[in-house]
Amino acid sequence: MSTANDMYRNEVKERYSFSSWAEKSKEAQAGPYKECSISEEGIHGLALLDKHHLPRNFRERRSQSYRLSPKDKTKDFEELFLVDLQECGSIEDAHENLIDTLMGCMSTRLPDLEDDIGDIAFGSHGDIQTSILFVRNNVVASVRSIGKKDVSVVETARVIDTFIRGEEFRQATIASTY
Amino acid sequence: MSRKLNDQQLTALSQLIDEFEKGVLEYARDRHTNDEEQRIGKEFAKLQAQLVNMDGKLTGLKEKSKVNGDPSEQDWKILKQMQAAVAEFVSHPDTNFPFYASPDLERIAYDTSKKADKPQQYALLEKINSWIDNPLSRENLGYLADTSAFSAHIGTKFPIIIIIKIWIIIYIQVSLLGRERRLQEETGNESGETEEPKGCLVSPFSWLFDKKPKNGPGLDVEIKIIVEIWIIIDILIPKSSSSSSSSSSSSSSSSSSSSSSSSSSSSSSSSSSSSSSSSSSSSSSSSSSSSSSSSSSSSSSSSSSSSSSSSSSSSSSSSSSSSSSSSSYSSSSSSESIGIYIDTITFNHDTTGLNKDAMNITIQYTNRVEIPEWKSGHTLPDESPAAYAIDETRGQQVTVVAEFGSLSTFPVTVEVKADGGGVLGALPPEIVHLHGGPSGPVHFKLVNHTIGARGIEVQNITWNWKWRPVGATQWQNLRSTNHRIYVVLKEPTGPWQQGADYTQYPWTKALDYACSSAWAGGNFNAPGAAGSTTRTVNMFSGLRYDIARGASVYTAGNGPEFYLSAFLMYLDGAWGNGNIVNCTDCASIVTTFSNLVGCDLHASTMGKGRGFKLTDFDAIGPGSWGVPFNGSFSYHEVAWTGAGGSSDNIYDACLKVDGDSDPWNAPHTGLLPVNMNFTMAPGAALPIPVPFTLPSYRERLCSNDANGIGRCNSTSTWPHDGTGGRRRVV
């Protein structure tokens, strides 16, 4: 890795006070979540329009991108959400991945999200939270409003967070552990 | 004089049937054996048989005409209209449902009977049309055409309705002539009431099923039955399904040969009957009669005959010369069943190079362009795409390769050429040897191409293929083929490649945009192409800047892939990942689309590290001058030339900088950074004094101080992408 990029990474970590939240998770005792994939049925009132795999880096076990829309508004793209879920091997990896994602933001510092979503979460500039980036345990989630209308993604992010923490993943974890 | 008119009329009708039958043969060549297809096959066989019956009727008419005189001038005009209608049908560039594409054809069919002022026939035509519209409605035919069975059977191109309708036109006209002849005959004989309803249309099959007409074809009946049987066999038995069927086909061809010669003898007998009147008309009759037995080559002689109407002698001489070439051709090829067809057309016949042919392309990611690019069944231009590079093909002998086939089992040598062709130009004649199977590859030189004359472009082209027997003068229509041709400056650069990874071949779905006049089309050099692309992305793509986060939606930020499929969805109106983008998206779009047409850009960054302060700019999308994110960028990414250094030029579709002499203060003058030097004032003391007139990107983007201009340096590509700023397209 080049020195310039190392410098940039460190710069970003510093901007986001990385050391204060790195390697910490409210769900650490649950172990890493697995099989974090939204099914074709969609999720809590959100219809899944399509999904595709994202390129994985060395920290990721699974990386998928989903386009979701409220079930009654799937035709016109007025309200559309882009949800990226990166399932990493560990909490540490997830946090490093979050830094990767933050490095790709032109904003020098995203606002902290004052909410209980994720272990660590960042919101967006502007009056409406059209974008939320958070980490829950070993999963990095990016939730963005990409429809024709700018809408808040807070509720959608909360749904995704609940989904990540869902019982099915814990069971999957237990099953794979034993 | 009057005799000549009659011959012309009959010749025209012969040609009409000829051309029509040739079309049926061509499109009926792919045959299968399941029930539905057999049913359709029988329909074709029936039509074929009916056409042969028409020939018989014609022969009868001709004989009668020798006795009873000529048809009216009006009828001659009608026949000319029919001829024009069928010629339009045969040569129509949109061979897929030409009736739908050419309402004129239908109109002519109606007008023919209207203008003829024959209410009885018009009523019958309406009745028959009504019949067509019910049991064989267009919807049904459209459905049939969509089914694979029908497609496989007739190559998706020859709807039964067309056959039926054209047959009906011929039916009516022949019946009309028959009626007049009969009326004349009856009047002449003064026999009064007859057993047959003479005032009504006479079935063309009456000679077969009814009492033999007084001056009917006589011995021809048996000959015609043989021809019918042969055609039915030819229609129903797949040509290459098995050796037994092939031998059967062979024997059927033999019988066709004998029928052909028999037909010749019949025509010679008719000639001899007419020779008592005129020897010149005898030779002409012979020609048309030979044509009546569905000889394509003799239809050319017919054509030459009918085209020369002013001079009897010239008519007969051209007719006889064609006739001689036709007869030598007939003797070797069983001309009525030659059924020459185009099997394939290959543009990219050398996948290792792009100097002498088209380059490797794919449709989109894993959706490949199959080679040969054109096969029977392809109708739309985008089903047969090809891309050429101006630089690499300049001064080279570029060729396309076509393969032909014939329904005949006899060896035949013909010439084939193609008119039209747009940017690829007309194809000069090439000799094609047919031996009852595929011709093998035939190279056609693109000697008339205009690749590069209009710079980058995308063009739908049509080749109107024609053929003729070697030595003949008249070209005959074979068919039309449609293709989409892309022209780019030179071999596309990364991420696009011509190597092993076909997913990174130039995508036609992207070329559709990149080569269009709305994007880089019409440009003759790389800076122009990249500039046009940058302008289109900035001003006309509907994208807007992500002021919430400044994050990429069409890449994984600093990752190695550009989600081009999603972006194409957006361009196609299916929204994709939406219209909110950041600089990485814009840089990737400009790089990818520009490199697709032969530019050499890469997406590269500036200011990575501590970020840098901005001066007001006009971000992509509707908005106003200002700065997002509290006035700073964490980094910025643009499409860069060269090595991405300070002295290299950039293209930035993400924003417009202030182009006036004071870029750090209002008022602002929007300047889209197109082929703009990154910095022309490296190391300049800060702040830079105004007026500042250099077309220097960095100085016009950043605040005029150490935290702005002072921190904004080129910082290369993202380390993770591993592509040198040319993200893989997925």
What does this structure look like?
The complex is a heterodimer of chains A (178) and B (730). With 178 residues, chain A is of the alpha+beta class. Chain A is 29% helix and 24% strand. Chain A is built from five helices and six strands, in the order ααβββαβββαα. In chain A, helix 1 crosses helix 3 (91-103). The longest helix of chain A is centred in the first third of the chain and has 13 residues, at 3-15. In chain B, 43% of the residues lie in helices and 15% in strands. In chain B, the strands form eight sheets. In chain B, strands 5-11-10-7-8 form a five-stranded mixed β-sheet. A five-stranded antiparallel β-sheet of chain B has the order 23-20-19-15-24. In chain B, helix 1 (2-27) packs parallel to helix 3, helix 1 (2-27) runs parallel beside helix 13 (279-292) and helix 13 packs across helix 14 (296-307). Chain B starts with a helix and ends with a strand. The chains are: A alpha+beta (178), B alpha+beta (730).
Summarize this entry quickly.
The complex is a heterodimer of chains A (178) and B (730). Chain A is 29% helix and 24% strand.
